[in-house]
Amino acid sequence: MNEFPQVLTIAGSDSDGSAGMQADLHTFFIRKTYGMSVLVAAVAGNSFGIHAAETLPLPFIEKQFEVLADDFQVRASKTGMLSDADLITTVVNAYKTYNFGPLVVDPVITTKHGAQLLADSAFQALKTKLLPLAEVATPNFFEAQLLTGRTINSEADQREAARDIQKFGVKNVVIKGWHNQENQSEVADYVLLANGSDFWLRHSYFDTTHINGTGDTLSATIAAEMAKGTDVATAIKIGHDVTKAAIENEIAVGHQFGPINHWAAANI
């Protein structure tokens, strides 16, 4: 019983299916794992934007953790956007209480364009309470700058930012590279592992408006692979390849900012 790889997303529901919990579950499916969820929030959104959002009651969130732990063997977990300090504290306390495997933290602090999404209290809770639990953290370029107070102007800066984030207690750090829609040919993601070794994951820049769920898919793939017993470095590389394939093979869904194509990455 309970031998099939089970993986958990702790995230919000995105009603158009392009990001959040839905993108995580799409990813768990194509990585041949059984996905579960602790739902923390819900947004009413479509390809034009988010139009309303609600956070679920904290006791209900706690109950989801409790009942999953009573029955299943979750082998790895990941977090998505956690919008306020009380919610982050609730998730942290529950994660410490139950054995849900190694944790991947996708620190959703900013949009892909650098606009900050979290209030200062939530930002501090993420830094001091959630990140120290992370087996892997996957900040984007802007989030890495906010977390470290460092301006990243070069690959050397990106390496130093990863070392700064590791000092929070994060074991393995992935800093997703700068995405600039003008005159960019390559994106460089930097990986710093717990043992001090590091490497770059480079790919051609693909100009598209169908990028919803990219961060979710990367972090969800890493979690799914760890649930299957894949080592962290290989899990990160697979996450990079899955996300790249899903971006480069566009799917005709929505009118403006659409989802990436998980089906295109199903055979990686």
UniProtKB/TrEMBL annotation:
GO terms for biological process: thiamine biosynthetic process. InterPro entries: HMP/HMP-P_kinase_dom, PM/HMP-P_kinase-1, Ribokinase-like. It comes from the Bacteria. Coiled coil: none annotated. Residues 14-261 form the Pyridoxamine kinase/Phosphomethylpyrimidine kinase domain. Pathway: Cofactor biosynthesis; thiamine diphosphate biosynthesis; 4-amino-2-methyl-5-diphosphomethylpyrimidine from 5-amino-1-(5-phospho-D-ribosyl)imidazole: step 2/3; Cofactor biosynthesis; thiamine diphosphate biosynthesis; 4-amino-2-methyl-5-diphosphomethylpyrimidine from 5-amino-1-(5-phospho-D-ribosyl)imidazole: step 3/3. One of its GO terms (cellular component) is cytosol. Keywords: ATP-binding, Kinase, Nucleotide-binding, Thiamine biosynthesis, Transferase. It is an enzyme of class 2 (transferase). Its EC number is 2.7.1.49, 2.7.4.7. It catalyses: 4-amino-5-hydroxymethyl-2-methylpyrimidine + ATP = 4-amino-2-methyl-5-(phosphooxymethyl)pyrimidine + ADP + H(+); 4-amino-2-methyl-5-(phosphooxymethyl)pyrimidine + ATP = 4-amino-2-methyl-5-(diphosphooxymethyl)pyrimidine + ADP. One of its GO terms (molecular function) is phosphomethylpyrimidine kinase activity. PANTHER family: HYDROXYMETHYLPYRIMIDINE_PHOSPHOMETHYLPYRIMIDINE KINASE THI20-RELATED (PTHR20858:SF17), PHOSPHOMETHYLPYRIMIDINE KINASE (PTHR20858). Belongs to the ThiD family. This is Hydroxymethylpyrimidine/phosphomethylpyrimidine kinase.
